[in-house]
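are you around this afternoon, could really use another pair of eyes. what follows is a protein written twice so to speak, once as letters and once as structure tokens for the fold. i want to understand how the tokens follow from the sequence so walk me through it. anything you notice is useful, everything is just below.
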Amino acid sequence: MTLRPALLASLLLLGASTARAAGRTPYGGELRLAHTGPATPAVPSLADTPLEATLLGLVSRSVCQLTPEGQAAPALALSMSRPFPQVVRLVLPSPAQAQALVQAWARLSSPEETSPYRALLFPLRDEGRRLSATGDTLELTLAFPWPDQERALCHPTLAPPRSSAAALGPFSSASATAQTLEARLSWPPGRPYLDTLRPRATDERGLTRLLSTHGTQVALGVPPDPGSSTGAALYATYLAWSPRRVPVDFRQAVENALDREDLTRLFVRGPAEPMPHLLPSALMPKAAGPRPPRPPVPAGGRQVTLLYDTDNEDQRAVAERLQVKLHDQGYTVALTALPRAGLRARWAKGDYELMLHSLLLPPVPGPALAVVLDAAGRKDLLGVELPRIGALPDAAARDARVRERALVLAPSLPLLPLYAQGLALRAEPEVGGLVFDAQGLPVLEGVWLAPAPVGGSGGRR
């Protein structure tokens, strides 16, 4: 039996009281997991809802994981260190995985890439496009001081694609469609407690039925209620527009029409909160500000098209609500649904008028601001803002600087924050060790099943 390191011990602290009473946390058993998500994309940069990131992370994990306290601890990587202030050294399980990770990151940071998550690699020299591995070791040289680089590398979208030779997670499957995941006994942080995990996709009605009949032990994507747990609300949705195609007074028209509290409460499912500022409240505490004066409603006749994600039901409902509210401001809004890959491709080309943009932000203010600035089409600001932030050695000072700049920059960006969401989870009583990491994702490799009472009919199998 593999002894687990301090990282996983800290992750399981909240759920280990029953196990301690029994003397040790039990290994073994099969966990039935139901969820409401669509088929998870194989490309991590497109699997960026909290639910999709959780499911993909079972079989492909980024080089590190953020503990609930926000500290980076190795996951895919065997170790992370800073031999020099401007160098981050990663040791991977094998030379093949080191090389495959180099290739995955080079694709993400290429000029043709259609993902705003490339901003997480911006502080690297050449933005990570010319990385090379020496055996199983990868050294990342920073272009400027950036103390938050290790924590940025923990983001789920920086995991290798499922099909990559570098893909490695706490569980393994025989194929992309396999219904049963097996514990990876050689998982570097320590093998999962479970032997197997059986995911099952269903709709909301099916999820409710499985919960009521005890047909599943863990449900992901459930509506929040007193019996559910919720991760940090870091999945942020914005309304983006093209300054070249939309009138300059569009921002004011949206602000006049928009009630974020109403929008979030009535049209967004699951745990969500209004987002009045550029970053969610988990990263940027709410600050009251004066509402801009309302100008006259513009004349009618302005026609625009709003793009949204086909697989995101919340985006569909919000798009329809914006269509109604903007009509009162003189805009006729046509709605067009696109697959996420197509949506990101249109974003990268600037080929849109209006677009709903949802992003899984890092739980660290600096890297989160970098992603948002890139998503706003202002990659030019990264080279101005990030070096000034990174020059501050104190983490609290960096975070304060980020919040200050977010307030200053927000009015000039063609990006309006709407709401932020977290992932809700409900579990049966026999499931122990369930905690969320700093990214707001459940740590399923730390789950264990309580043994059945002696002579009882309950159990874990």
Q: What stands out?
A: The chain has three domains: 26-59+169-231+423-450, 65-166, 235-286+298-421. The CA atoms of residues 311 and 339 lie 7 Å apart. Residues 313-327 form the longest helix (15 residues).
